[in-house]
Amino acid sequence: MRVEELLRKGAALLQAAGVFSPRVDAEVLLSFVLDCDRLALYREPEREVAPAEVGRFEKLLNRRAAGEPVAYLTGEKEFMGLKFRVTPAVLIPRPETELLVETAIALLQGVTAPVVVDVGTGSGAVAVSLALFLPAARVFAVDISAAALEVARENAARHQVAERITFSQGDLLTPFFKSGVTFDLIAANLPYVPSEEVATLSPEVRREPALALDGGLDGLALYRRLVLQAKGFLHAGGHLLMEIDPKQKEGALNLVPPPVWQAWVVKDLGGRDRLVVAQYRG
Q: What's the top EC group for this one (predicted)?
């Protein structure tokens, strides 16, 4: 069977299953099976695909039609222009979280040897990106999930920054309570979906770890605890970054009131309130 024919049939199957981006997903899955980039599919639309590869593609299509995320099927997701290993043990990195990384990099310009921690690191996408784009930084990464930390360590090794990131397992900043370490910046993309809304998420999103989605009654339960801890770890003038749902703006800002904090919200590329930036005034 030819490439173009497989793509056409694959996209039709996914569309019938109600998949949001059927053609793109079919292209990603076929390029994964053929070990090529998506452009190659257009360069060689008449290429004959071997029966074994057709079979692999069809199995992946059926799993995608059943609601399994593409990133879990391929085991990879791009973030900040980098490829990261992902498994069902971690939340799939989102494009909007790149705003957190970009803001952290901007805030730390001019800081000599900044010390940064990524709280709730998951796949390690934020921590690894910060280590790569801030080569003078000392980076810490913490997660409560041992399985997630395994993936994060793999990604750090993959991008050759493993020696510059200290990984710890634990709840928020508790692994550092007796360490004496302090931070210039705390980055957090914690679960922020209100508990009662988790069941209303798409079947695809519900395939991701509940531990990485459920943010308690109002979605801010973990951030509420993190803010209390952060005051004991931030240098005066240091920053706490928290990714939120746009409708949580006021609630999140109430967690970091003046005069202890000076806080503002940064919008994402879609113009939605996405990131709370809070500077600790001491």
A: transferase
